[in-house]
From TrEMBL:
<feature type="domain" description="Laminin G">
    <location>
        <begin position="1018"/>
        <end position="1200"/>
    </location>
</feature>
<feature type="domain" description="Laminin G">
    <location>
        <begin position="792"/>
        <end position="957"/>
    </location>
</feature>
<keyword id="KW-0472">Membrane</keyword>
<dbReference type="InterPro" id="IPR008979">
    <property type="entry name" value="Galactose-bd-like_sf"/>
</dbReference>
<feature type="domain" description="Laminin G">
    <location>
        <begin position="182"/>
        <end position="362"/>
    </location>
</feature>
<keyword id="KW-0677">Repeat</keyword>
<feature type="transmembrane region" description="Helical">
    <location>
        <begin position="1239"/>
        <end position="1263"/>
    </location>
</feature>
<dbReference type="InterPro" id="IPR036056">
    <property type="entry name" value="Fibrinogen-like_C"/>
</dbReference>
<dbReference type="InterPro" id="IPR000421">
    <property type="entry name" value="FA58C"/>
</dbReference>
<dbReference type="InterPro" id="IPR001791">
    <property type="entry name" value="Laminin_G"/>
</dbReference>
<dbReference type="InterPro" id="IPR002181">
    <property type="entry name" value="Fibrinogen_a/b/g_C_dom"/>
</dbReference>
<keyword id="KW-1133">Transmembrane helix</keyword>
<feature type="domain" description="EGF-like">
    <location>
        <begin position="958"/>
        <end position="996"/>
    </location>
</feature>
<feature type="domain" description="F5/8 type C">
    <location>
        <begin position="31"/>
        <end position="177"/>
    </location>
</feature>
<dbReference type="Pfam" id="PF00754">
    <property type="entry name" value="F5_F8_type_C"/>
</dbReference>
<feature type="domain" description="Laminin G">
    <location>
        <begin position="368"/>
        <end position="543"/>
    </location>
</feature>
<keyword id="KW-0732">Signal</keyword>
């Protein structure tokens, strides 16, 4: 083979290898070709070089020429290495290597890119982290693939850190591929219009995509007009991209804003845009952020007829979005449904009409900006010789997010003072001062921290000084203080070194550009090269401003504000809290409120926690056995319907106080739901028709609902009523009472309990047009109980056991909450791993919970230490949250511990393993105990379902009274349930979910309640028994009596306890308004009268009395007064107890002769909370009447304490019935009234909280008083303990004699 042939073969082989190396198996280009190795030496530049053999041309990976790499003259953070790729190129990876055979390498660096060699932009990973990790030695090549490819001609690498025992040393490689595009340049007067072909215009999907770059913050990009004079307008306004919908209507309107996306888009860098019309949706994408919006019906079948590019357009009466602001900048790869519009303009296509001067290259003005990255930076410039003439002018432009910062300062030698031009509270201010006084102050502008470019001009001439902001707003002052500056003067921008000037203000953080002195532009590139002035802590030839609120990390409608280095979320009025408004303020269901000890009332519930469903206001009905959530609608009352010959049907629609997604979530999460549906009829039929179609029906279920043809109490689809199911209808030939069509009132009522058909959304009633037809209907509120999530639990009884679930999804925000109880001191609750990242929550000791994770910035731990043991077999709550701002951990009700995230750190949590609950992948440090109600981002994990199929784990976890039993008050007893607990109030004088509701009644002088303990015939069944043995089973050696009363009567009978042996105990108020306790424990001995020293008990106020006797020792306490102690001398046994009477006494033969008329006098007032040992006679009469309770006279249930003490749970109750304004419509549901007046809610809550605090203060005082030394009215031989309570059997007909050592403790 000849030499020429060999050369041709070699060239062919090289070309083939290049082609094969840059193409995949399917012929598509693989963009990973090395780009640096073959570049010419002239395409490398650097800030400096240590020597000619350390020049930038030697900075090629795996090359050893020269000194084996590039090293600058000085090793500091102002050095850089730049590569010119000769044309715009797609860059996908970068690799670094240290200088060959040395100790010189980089450990971290920044990557910058540019199209022009100016206006550099920093590449950021995850929109946050800017620094790349470098090398650990001089030989290893470390490559980083870019998450998003960069398209640029110039790349610049800036060293941040290097080997501390060496200096900066670098070899570099860049990987990528060729990039092609079609570009058009618009000068503010040029534009074109494209008219799609008829066939193309009827595409079901329309897509417009483009890239643009500009220095102008406003301008019209696109105007798309379709049929019906509807149009879409895409405009740039203040650096944001806005999408408007307009229609030619009679009122001149700028249109409806559909989407606002992006920020700082006037930075002279390329930004990608994509607009998609998908039937009823519009998707707008700017760079990597997408927003979707639903469009009106007119736009769902809308198609583009004309597409205008680059110019303001208006049609008919439409008002232009941006008047006289055409686009000024460059567009690239403008595609409409894959049609290249710029290429059509180039080809002079008939579908395109162009106007103005448009070029097909992107000509960019050079603008060098300076970034002040921290408050310690400064730019120092020398004065001008021309300033000696007396005219001084300084101009600049700035942009920042900070409210304050120094822009300019210089010394005034003649005045021995200084001039300061600075931002304060978003305004521009000028201050001239000496060391002891202020000579001049001026201010101008407002809201200058909006991130936009603002121009500033400072001018001084003769005795006139002025500052101007944005050319049209300024301040001028006549002053005798001349700005006597010379060429020796030094100007400091942004800050100043401490040794050279005085700066009482905060340093500037932001960007400066277009700095000029007396009209002469300052060459900032000379400053960068140290040829002019001086600087520190600056980035020159770039503006590094970042909009941390676009896209906003504030969730749930939180408002984002920012400074230069961070952002803040205002969560007020959102219902959420935390650094990013991620966590809800409210509980997820009524069950959770109950288990915090709250009573019935209105509460906000957030059914999905941190999820997208908003909190809703519901009524929580805390009954003794169930916790109901009640959701009202606009008509829950019985509504009459009159017959009318003019109408065949009546339709009723029900609007609920909760939104659709809120309703659906409540129904799905509940174990049971019901809704009352009633129809009262007289000659009005429901289903009975000749043609089989029903007269009436209702619509229910999710969404818009479905027609239902069954009635309350019947099965879905049955076309029956409750009586048809029970086979007891008025006419057995029909399945509903009303279908019998009787001329008398009947009703078909019942509960709808099939959750798939709830809620009832509308009701249609027919058969109303006949004469004498009458009807009424009622649709009750939606009521649900039982929460599938709150009690979902698993018990881990082996350290190696665990449950596994899919990977935790929480790249930017994640919250985890659960309850646990254990007797062990350590164990892992939860763990999820990634390649490097992880997240874990564990009990590290008996008093410490640790939340740890790593998102790439290194492991971080948040710890909560408690002062009490966490392994006490009580339920404890844990809540952990991690977001882009912070990580926090809360245990029980202790203050949350937070740890701030690094300002420019990695933010994405990348996990890939399964989520382990109760253990780890290594099966070590497993948790032993119970985990309950585990929620991730508001979604409950079904622990019980997974536990049923997992060895070493059991579903459910009993033993709730140990944690929640404290909520059962007033001698209520906690009862364990499979899912939770309940309070047994059978031995309490109170009722309600926690035995805390007052049971009280109003008495008149003739009112009497007698509770029969033993009937005489029960005691005489055994005829051979002697009298002494008949009553021996009901002999007491002690009593516990408590009651509250309110009266103005004295004397008055409160309580009488009678005996078969003519023994008794009487509690009364004597004629002096004092309390007397009368004991007669022996029929042959006199009555012993124990008189309290507390006076004026008949004052109409509520008073509480507690009496305790053990043998001969009696203690009496009235309200919060000191306890009074007495001793009985006659006897200590109360024999043959027969009955307990309140008010007027029917049998008075055994009363003391000195109290004539007392029996008939009775009691007038209010009694509540009456308890004699375990018998509650007043509660029995009002709530559980039976043959043992005899009531005579008027007895009206009331509330004795309503005006004297606050409900301790009212602070948690949003509203009660009495809270509603009197002007509210009686038919309007309470929930709607509450929602319509949020100010009233706030006021009521504030008042209730105040009352609650007062109640707590009174309780605290009561406890303190109880601890005081009690006086002894009589000489005592013995003193019982205060906490003794003398038991009395809950079975009223089976009293027994308690032993001396039996005790019962009050809560």
């Amino acid at each position: 083979m000849s030499l020429g042939s060999k050369r041709l073969s070699g060239i062919a082989a090289f070309i083939a290898s290049v082609l094969l190396g840059s193409c995949g198996t399917d012929g598509e280009e693989v963009c990973d070709r090395p780009l640096v190795s073959n570049l010419a030496p002239s395409l490398f530049r650097s800030s400096s070089q240590l020597s000619s053999s350390h020049g930038p041309v030697f900075a090629k990976v795996n090359r050893r020429e020269g000194a084996g790499g590039w090293s600058p003259l000085l090793s500091d953070r102002y050095q850089w290495l730049e590569v010119d790729l000769q044309r715009r190129t797609q860059v996908t990876a970068v690799a670094t290597q240290g200088r060959y055979g040395s100790s010189d390498w980089l450990t971290t660096y920044l990557l910058m890119f540019s199209d022009t060699g100016h206006n550099w932009r920093q590449y950021r990973q995850e929109d946050s982290l800017g620094a790349f990790p470098g090398n650990s030695n001089a030989d290893t090549v470390v490559q980083h693939k870019l998450e998003q490819p960069v398209i640029a001609r110039y790349l610049r690498l800036i060293p941040l850190d290097w080997n501390p025992s060496g200096r900066i040393g670098l070899r570099l490689e860049i990987y990528g591929c060729r990039y092609t595009s079609d570009v058009a340049s618009f000068d503010g007067s040029s534009s074109f219009v494209y008219r799609p072909s008829v066939r193309a215009s009827w595409a079901s999907i329309e897509i417009i995509s483009l890239k643009f770059k500009t220095m102008k913050n406003s301008g019209a990009l696109l105007h798309a007009k379709g049929q019906g004079d509807h149009s879409l307008n895409m405009v740039l306004d203040k650096g944001k991209l806005l999408l408007y919908h307009q229609q030619d209507v009679s009122s001149a309107s700028t249109g409806k804003l559909l989407i606002s996306l992006g920020s700082l888009l006037d930075d002279q860098h390329w930004h990608s845009v994509k607009l998609e019309r998908l039937n009823t949706h519009l998707n707008l994408t700017v760079d990597r952020n997408t927003q979707q919006v639903h469009v009106s019906a007119e736009l769902s079948h809308w198609h583009i007829h004309t597409l205008s590019v680059g110019a303001v357009q208006s049609h008919g009466l439409q008002k232009p979005i941006l008047s006289n602001r055409n686009f000024d900048g460059c567009l690239e790869n403008l595609l409409y449904n894959e049609i290249n519009l710029i290429n059509l303009v180039k080809q002079n296509s008939s579908q395109v009409t162009a106007a103005g001067r448009m070029t097909f290259s992107c000509s960019e003005p050079v603008s060098v900006a300076v970034t002040f990255t921290d408050s310690h930076g400064f730019l120092q410039l020398p004065g001008l010789a021309s300033w000696s003439s007396g005219l001084v002018s300084v101009m600049l432009q700035f942009r920042t997010w900070n409210k304050a910062g120094l822009l300019l300062t210089f010394a005034l030698q003649q005045q021995e003072g200084s001039l300061f031009l600075y931002l304060s509270e978003t305004r521009l201010r000028l201050l001239i001062s000496t060391a002891d006084k202020v000579l001049l102050e001026l201010s101008a502008g407002s809201r200058l921290n909006d991130g936009q470019w603002h121009s500033v001009e400072l001018t001084s001439e003769e005795n006139r000084l002025s500052i101007t902001v944005d050319r049209d707003e300024g301040a001028t002052a006549h002053t005798s203080v001349p700005l006597s500056l010379t060429s020796d003067s030094q100007l400091f921008f942004g800050g100043c070194p401490d040794q050279k000037c005085r700066n009482p203000f905060r340093g500037f953080q932001g960007c400066l550009r277009l700095v000029s002195l007396n009209g002469q532009p300052v060459d900032l590139i000379k400053v960068q090269r140290r040829l002019l002035g001086n600087y520190s802590n600056l980035q020159i030839d770039m503006c590094g401003i970042i909009d941390r609120c676009s896209p906003s990390h504030c969730e749930h409608g939180g408002r984002c504000t920012q400074s230069w280095s961070t952002f803040h979320c205002n969560c007020s009025n959102s219902g959420y809290r935390g650094a990013t408004c991620h966590s809800t303020k409210y509980e997820q269901n009524c069950e959770m409120y109950k288990h915090k000890g709250n009573a019935s009332g209105h509460y906000y519930v957030d059914v999905d926690g941190s999820g997208p469903i908003k909190p809703q206001l519901v009524y929580c009905n805390m009954t003794e056995d169930k916790t109901w959530v009640v959701i009202q609608h606009n008509n829950t009352e019985l509504t009459s319907v009159q017959a009318s010959a003019d109408r065949n049907q009546l339709s009723a629609h029900f609007d609920y106080s909760s939104e659709e997604e809120q309703l659906a979530a409540v129904i799905v999460q509940s174990d049971y739901c019901e809704q009352e549906l009633s129809f009262h009829c007289r000659r009005s039929r429901l289903f009975n028709t000749l043609d089989g179609a029903p007269f009436s029906w209702w619509v229910g279920g999710p969404g818009s609902g479905q027609i239902q043809n069954h009635w309350g109490g019947a099965l879905p689809g049955s076309r029956q009523c409750a009586c048809g199911l029970q086979d007891n209808c008025l006419d057995s030939s029909f399945y509903c009472n009303c279908d019998a069509d009787y001329d008398q009132w009947a009703d078909d009522s019942g509960l709808l309990t099939h959750k798939d058909n709830l809620p009832v959304r509308s009701l249609v009633l027919g058969d109303l047009q006949r004469p004498r037809s009458k009807a009424a209907y009622k649709v009750g509120p939606l009521r649900c109980h039982g929460d599938k999530n709150f009690w979902n639990a698993a018990f881990f009884d082996k350290e190696t056991s665990y449950l596994h679930f899919p990977t935790l999804q929480g790249e930017l925000n994640a919250d985890i909450s659960f309850l646990f109880k254990t007797t062990f001191s350590s164990g892992v609750f939860l763990e999820n791993l990634g390649i490097k990242d992880f997240i874990r929550i564990e009990l590290s000791s008996s008093t410490e919970v640790v939340f740890s994770f790593d998102v790439g910035n290194g492991p971080l731990e948040v710890k909560v230490e408690t002062s009490f043991p966490l392994n006490d077999n009580q339920w404890h709550s844990v809540r952990a949250e991690r977001n882009v701002k912070e990580a926090l951990l809360r245990v029980d009700d202790l203050p949350a511990v937070a740890h701030e995230a690094p300002a420019d750190g990695l933010i994405h949590l990348q996990l890939n393993s399964q989520l382990f609950i109760g253990g780890t992948a290594s099966r070590q440090k497993g948790f032993l105990g119970c985990i309950r109600s585990l929620q991730l981002n508001g979604v409950t994990l079904d622990l019980e379902e997974r536990a049923e199929m997992t060895p070493g784990v059991r579903p459910g976890c009993p033993g709730h009274c140990s944690s929640y039993g404290r909520f059962c008050q007033n001698q209520g007893r906690c009862v364990e349930k499979a899912n939770g607990f309940s309070c047994d109030c059978s031995q309490s004088a109170y009722s309600g979910a926690f035995c805390h509701h007052e049971v009280s009644a109003s008495f008149t002088s003739t009112t009497s309640i007698t509770f029969i303990i033993k009937e005489p015939y029960e005691l005489s069944r055994n005829g051979s028994a002697m009298p002494s043995s008949i009553y021996s089973d009901i002999t007491l050696r002690g009593e516990n009596i408590s009651l509250s009363f309110r009266t103005t009567q004295s004397p008055a009978m409160l309580l009488y306890i009678g005996s078969f042996y003519r023994e008794h105990l009487i509690l009364l108020i004597n004629k002096h308004g004092e309390l007397e306790v009368r004991y007669k424990l022996h029929s042959s001995k006199d009555v012993e009268v124990l008189s309290s020293r507390v006076m004026n008990l008949a004052d109409g106020r509520l008073h509480t009395v507690t009496i305790r006797r053990q043998a001969g020792a009696v203690s009496v306490q009235v309200d919060q007064n000191s306890r009074e102690d007495f001793n009985l001398t006659s006897d200590v046994e109360f024999n043959g107890i027969k009955s307990v009477t309140l008010g007027s006494i029917r049998e008075s033969e055994d009363l003391d002769s000195e109290l004539p008329g007392l029996a008939s006098l009775g009691f007038t007032g209010c009694l509540s909370g009456v308890r004699f040992n375990s018998i509650c006679p007043l509660k029995s009469a009002l709530l559980h009447p039976d043959s043992r309770v005899i009531v005579t006279g008027s007895l009206v249930q009331s509330s004795c304490a309503s005006s004297s003490q606050a409900d301790p749970y009212a602070a948690e109750t949003t509203h009660s019935l009495s809270d509603q304004p009197r002007s509210a419509d009686a038919g309007q549901p309470l929930v709607n009234a509450i929602r319509s007046d949020s100010a009233l809610i706030g006021g009521v809550i504030a008042v209730v909280i105040f009352i609650t605090m007062c109640a707590f203060a009174i309780m605290a005082r009561f406890i303190c008083v109880r601890k005081e030394t009690f006086r002894n009215q009589e000489v005592k031989s013995s003193q019982p303990e205060d906490d003794h309570e003398f038991p009395f059997s809950s079975q009223a007909d089976s009293l027994s004699v308690p032993s001396e050592n039996q005790k019962e403790f009050f809560i």
